[in-house]
Amino acid sequence: MSQRLKRILLIIGFVLSVFAFAFILYALFFRSAPPEATVEDTEEELTGVLPSSGEGGVRGDDDTTGEGVGLTEADTVARGGVTATTTLTTSEVTDTVINGNDVNYYDPTDGRFYTINEDGEVVAMSSTQFPEVETVVWNKDSEKALLEFPDGSNIIYDFETEDQVTLPDHWEDFDFSPVTDEIIAKSIGLDPNNRWLVIASDDGSQTESIAALGQNESKVDVNWSPNDQVVAFADTVESREGGFDRRFIIPVGKNEENFKGLTVEGLDFISLWSPNGKQLLYSVAGEYSDFKPLIWLVEATSNTMGNDRHSLGLNTWADKCTWHSSSEVYCAVPTALKSSAGLQRSLSDVGPDVIYYIDVKTGRASLLAIPEDDTVISGLWVSDDGTKLYFTNDNGQLQLMYLR
């Protein structure tokens, strides 16, 4: 190659490199940026407000942030969600009972008994005061009450006639007959051989001993059945089979009847008769339920005692339930129960309650209501017409919820 040709190629290469370098500088520093991407208009315009949340439900144990949960307006009638309640008393009340569509209660603050009628009016049942009443048992018509006092004294007071009957001091754990004017009690003598279940007229006369208690008085639960067949349950023997927490409950009759016993799967037996006395709702706590209380249902007449025993799947105590008819039950169910709560109830942190409805015919339990204010419920009562549910909250105040 000649020197002339080499010189020409070098000049051409230099020129090309200058153009390439210039293009690179232009691209990096002088060319305008590409236009931003655009979004086409949508049908829904932005309004400047936050999007609404869905309806809130019962918060589970794993819901700790509360994100995405909105406030839900309480229903005025129980329909399975958050339900409005009305507080009827300003102070603590005890010993509530349904009287038709009215509700009676004892007010420890002034020692008087009151009734709230269908119009919501609070009326004193008597001007007589009964300070420091310890327990109250109402008769079948709710016009008489048997009162036990801390000093051991016992009286029956008739609110219609204002008559008062004094009962022996060594009698305790009373119940009224559901069909007659009789009462039952434990007569506790100093000598264990002189401790009996006794039945008497509600004036204290015509006393009859029906079963010896011996040293087992604390293991006998007085609970008179509505059909007048059973007056108590005795948890005095171990089950013939099964683990240590399986119990054999003996029904006690008025005439030394030899009723078939109940085998229950757990401890702390608490029972509640159906209005016709044909079935028994009860709770026990066993190893199978992590020693949490569990509700069971069983046939309980003299001929069917122990038949068709089955769990209803609700972890609560029977004394937090109430029958409305022989086919309907309402229960207050804790939203959180720790292991062994059924064995250490007074020490257990049970959390707020929700209310379940049980269809006894199908055995199905369904959530009925979540009280709008978190509370621990200590009793439930349904008006005779089925429209009102009464309960006491964790402050002991009486509250009302409408069922329909």
Give an overview in words.
This is Dipeptidylpeptidase IV N-terminal domain-containing protein. Residues 40-68 are annotated as: Disordered. This protein is mainly β. The chain is built from one helix and 29 strands. It has one helix at residues 3-29; strands at 82-83, 86-87, 94-99, 102-107, 112-116, 122-124, 135-138, 144-148, 154-158, 164-167, 171-176, 182-188, 195-201, 208-212, 220-222, 230-238, 246-253, 262-265, 267-273, 279-285, 293-299, 310-311, 321-325, 328-334, 353-359, 364-371, 380-382, 388-392, 398-402. The strands form seven sheets. The chain has a five-stranded mixed β-sheet, with no helix packed on it. The longest helix is centred in the N-terminal third of the chain and has 27 residues, at 3-29. The chain is globular and about 140 Å long.
